[in-house]
Amino acid sequence: MEDRLVTLKKFDTAFGAQFAKDVLEENGIKAIVVGENLHVVPHLTVSCMDSIELKVFECDVDKAKEILTSQPDAETGDIDE
Q1: Residue 37's pLDDT band (boundaries 50, 70, 90)?
Q2: Is the Cα dihedral 80, 39, 54, 78 positive or negative?
Q3: How far apart are CA 54 and CA 52, in angstroms?
Q4: pLDDT digits (tens, 9 = 90+) for 49-72
Q5: Could you tell me the domains of the chain?
Q6: Listing from the earlier edge strand, what are the strands of the sheet with 52-57?
Q7: Which residues make Cβ contacts (< 8 Å) with residue 28, sequence separation at least 6?
Q8: Measured between alpha carbons, how far is residue 29 from residues 11, 24, 38, 63, 76 in Å?
């Protein structure tokens, strides 16, 4: 059975998303940041993606939330869903 990627959190800055990703990976959770490069392209309107998403495998969601909750600095730039 394949595990799918799900959005764990949305951020308004690439820095916040990357920092949270690093925290997760330091704790053994694989994560990717989606959308960070779209925010640096001048004159590009991106209507389908208004934030930067931190994604993890579905099986890691609960552990990842616990890790980020226990380390408030990893929540920098957070946008609640």
Answers
A1: low
A2: negative
A3: 7
A4: 557 999 999 999 999 999 999 987
A5: 5-79 (3.30.70.790)
A6: 31-34, 52-57, 5-11, 78-79
A7: none
A8: 18, 5, 24, 8, 18
CA atoms within 13 A on the CB side of 41: 7
- Check: CB of residue 49 under 8 Å from CB of residue 38: yes
C-alpha Rg value of the chain to the nearest Å = 13
| CB-CB contact of 39 with 12 (8 Å) | no
Burial of 28 (0-12, 13-18, 19+ CB in 10 A): exposed
Residue 77 dihedral angles phi and psi, to the nearest 5°: 80, 15
Taking the C-alpha atoms of residue 44 and residue 66, their distance in angstroms, rounded to an integer, is: 35
pLDDT recorded at residue 47: 46
